Amino acid sequence: MTESSYFCDQCTLxxxxxxxxxxxxxxxxxxxxxxxxxxxxxxKFPTFDLAACVSLESGKEFAQIDHKTYExxxxxxFAWPKDxxxxxxxxxxxxxxxxxxxxxxxxxxxxxxxxxxxxxxxWRKDHPDLTDLPFPMLADSKHELMRDLGIxxxxxxxxxxxxxxxxxxxxxxxxxxxxxxxxxxKEVLRVLDALQTDELCPCNWSKGEDTLDPVALLSGE
Length: 221
Fold this sequence. Notes:
alpha+beta, 9 strands
């Protein structure tokens, strides 16, 4: 799905919002941070090539990870503002506890902030809830990824954002919360389950429950 597919060809409002070139960013009608549009459903996730802390094992601490490393998989990519803070480790640890659940759904979890891979490593060594973290902590030290996603805040730090990216590198879910509010990884997992059904899922739907049959509903069954 492209940005242009969100707009019809009839009404004046849609023509005002619709970019003349599919690569151009709409100037209004979309949420922005620092004047940049926050990427959302239907957008392609940006290319990236970042160093990461992947382990505390000597000699295996760091790796280079790019947009092709997990090509063909679903990806859950989330950002946090700063290492050595308070809300952030609660979220990171919670995603870590659900890592096997995400892996069972062929989804790779990736987290990042603007801190370097060495700061990530020091934080993991210092914080007991992060010691055995099972997914990479990417170092967006130049802030290129957060800017491409449109989630760099006015303070220069990444916003508390999360994206679910499908096997074709297309964003299917995005969310940004206030810095004081931690996210719920179980809800992200629930949304991933719903997306992978490729069916209509009602409010509060959970894996294993019935999805909606529009034909049956329209016929009154």
